[in-house]
Amino acid sequence: MIVRRRNLASRIGTALRWLVFIVTGFVLNLPIIMTVVTSLKSTADINTSPPPLLFEPTLDNYREVLGAGNTDLPGYILNSIVIAGGGALLAIALAFPAAYAMVRYEVGKSWLLPLITNLRAVPLIIFAIPIYLMYQLAGLLDSWTGMILIECVINIPVALVLFVGFVQDIPEEMDAAAKIDGASIWGTLWHVIFPLSRPILFAVLILSFVYGWNEFLFGLILTTKQAVPVTVGATFFVTSYGVKWGATAAAMTLGIIPPLILGLFAYPYIGKSMLTGAVKG
Amino acid sequence: MAGQTVGVRAKEQAEARYFLVALCAFLALMLGFPAVANLWYSFSNFTFHDLTGGSFVGLANYQKAISNPNLWAAFGFSLKFAAICMTIEVVAGLLLVFILHPLLLKRPWLTGILMLPMMVSPALMGVMYRLILNEFTGVIPAYLALAGYPINFLGRNNVYMTVIGIEVLQWTPFAFLIMLTARQGLAGELEEAAAVDGATGFRFNTLVVLPVMIPTIIIVAFIRFIDSFRVFDHIYVLTGGGPGNRTTSLSIYIYKLFFNQNFLGEAVAVSIMLLVASLTLLFAGLRLAIRRNGR
């Protein structure tokens, strides 16, 4: 009797947990769902009040924003791909060898590592002004190079911490074996550590790409026309297109889908990476 | 023999230092140089047209900066915004961990659904909320009006609540994910042992789980506080800091001083003060952490 009552109670408990999960998932993702839905509506359906629950989906909005010569959106997307990709690769190239040196040879681990990890906690706006002025002098405003460099700066703390954590867990015998075979440090790094680190390299690549893609402040400040990323470009739609919500929604959907898909692959690492700055190494 | 080993090690260490050179040079160029330039600019009266010119004006920029009441309003906004968002996110995240942990333990992929908002650019999140909260075509106000609750989310009186709500809805998943990971790291034996002692369900969560998770909760609260304190993206696209200065965070304040109002020296002075303040806080935090670990 008692067993049966407990069974019922636990079943109700589980049902309530499911209810909480569904409601939370719906509320948290509501703007995403609604934006995607709006992007598939015709202008007439968008302007109907109250909004119809059922409507005939159309790709007109996507045709409008992606069609040749209609808007600058394809250019923004290309800019974002180049900037986020370049920033991620450069950050890896700079941080990975440094992480190896820090872990295996204890160089810079005591001062450089905490310094860099703490960078993440400094408000970016502090560097926005001097970097803007520096770029103006160097002619890097509104260029891919300038944006790649700044995204790289933003990615370095996270990349370094994740690399240090990973390389620490690679057994040192691996290095020793390579050295007995006469490999230099460079050789060991390239032929032993690099192949073993493929999972973390992949994760950092994805995460850095997502961060670079989602970055807004520097895109807003440092670009005007040629190198505008999609996060900044999509906001132009709101003002310049006025009430064209369908086109805006389509532009936004295209701006959020790449990080959403990539993020699903990397989400076990996301929590860890975002802890950067509060916990050392 | 031993001397030789030490020699090899020292030689390798010297070689390994080269691995840091590129990174250090890059950061010195991209952050060190701008920081020093910023410091010089904060004491000079430079203009957009004459970046390398300008003459030393002492503390004039700083004086102007701290005597501007809008600075303290923006500082107050950021502080309050960060404190409110952090509190709600930690409490909501913790509640969700307690409620959803049993479900997610067996189906980890479900966690991914709750993580989606974190992957969206905060700026685009702001634009999306602008779309669905729009007074005329927004879906949410339309349905609320149908239900008899007409609310203008972006109107003067509600906009403060709205920007907090958006921050909370986007970043509670983060608090949740970190605390869920910590909760899942707790050994199953703990649960069994507690059950033997009669602590199950709510009592188990508050008396056993909560105390163990306190270090994680502190870390999450700290990260969420610093991230919310420097908020820029979603507020900028949603309200631009307005109406008036009602939603102007410190980051938006500095941005507007520099790019809209052309008070270059003043903006630089504020950013230097913010840098010093955040570094002081960080080092204090770091020392605390070291002392705690040392014990």
Brief synopsis:
Chain A is 77% helix and 0% strand.
Low-pLDDT residue spans of chain A: 277-281
CATH class of the largest domain in chain A: Mainly Alpha
Helix content of chain A: over 70%
Work out the number of β strands of chain B: 0
Strand content of chain A: under 5%
- Given helix and strand content, the structural type of chain B is mainly alpha
* CATH third-level topology of the largest domain in chain A: MetI-like fold
- Counting structural domains of chain B, the number is 2
Largest sheet of chain B: none
CATH architecture term of the largest domain in chain B: Orthogonal Bundle
Uncertain runs of chain B: none
Q: Write out the CATH superfamily name of the largest domain in chain B.
A: MetI-like
Question: What keyword list fits this structure?
Answer:
heterodimer; A: 281 residues; MetI-like fold; 2 domains; disordered C terminus; B: 295 residues; mainly alpha; 12 helices; 0% strand; globular
Describe this structure in words.
The complex is a heterodimer of chains A (281) and B (295). Chain A has 281 residues and is mainly alpha-helical. Chain A has two domains: 2-61; 64-274, MetI-like (MetI-like fold, Orthogonal Bundle). Chain A has helices at 2-39, 43-47, 60-66, 73-105, 112-119, 125-138, 144-168, 172-180, 185-196, 198-214, 217-222, 230-240, 245-274. In chain A, helix 12 (230-240) packs antiparallel against helix 13 (245-274). The longest helix of chain A has 38 residues, at 2-39. Chain B is mainly α and 295 residues long. Chain B has two domains: 16-58, no CATH class; 70-294, Orthogonal Bundle (MetI-like fold). Chain B contains twelve helices and no strands. Chain B has helices at residues 2-42, 60-66, 69-106, 109-119, 122-133, 139-146, 159-185, 188-196, 201-229, 233-238, 250-260, 264-294. The longest helix of chain B has 41 residues, at 2-42. The mean pLDDT of chain B is 85. Chains A and B meet through helix 1, helix 4, helix 5, helix 6 and helix 7 of A and helix 1, helix 3, helix 4, helix 5 and helix 6 of B.
